[in-house]
Design brief:
The protein is α/β, with parallel strands linked by helices. It has 5 helices and 4 strands.
Length: 119
């Protein structure tokens, strides 16, 4: 399991690199979550790495799920979570909903891309 954050200028190929990492993980039959667009629904996004169940909703008046509950869910094998550029806020949403998310799915790596455009 790991979380990979890919940063860099808009024309640095970061989305292409993210898709390549995702495709490689899929070929290895690993769970994969690619965050490259704005998320409208945190639950729907996280459910992409669950096997056959929906992510429970927090109890009324709560903003997060108990780690003892969500960590026992049937998560896909060895998931790779790839976050592109300014979508890092998604990790904050995941952590708020699932306290301990980064530790559970980590370690976290950061890749900095660059552009050779204009050389």
């Amino acid at each position: 399991m790991s979380i990979t954050i890919i940063k860099g200028p808009s024309k640095s190929g970061k989305s292409l690199l993210a898709k390549s990492l995702r495709n490689n993980a899929v070929n290895e039959k690993r769970g994969t979550l690619l965050v490259d667009v704005e998320m409208a629904d945190t639950f729907a996004m996280l459910e992409k790495i669950l096997i056959g169940v929906s992510l429970p909703r927090p109890a009324e008046g709560k903003e997060s799920l108990d780690p003892a509950v969500w960590q026992k869910l049937p998560w896909k094998k060895d998931p790779l979570i790839v976050v592109v550029g300014d979508k890092v806020a998604a990790l904050e949403k995941f952590e708020k909903l699932l306290p301990g998310f980064a530790k559970f799915f980590g370690p976290t790596y950061v890749i900095e891309t660059s552009s050779t455009e204009g050389e």
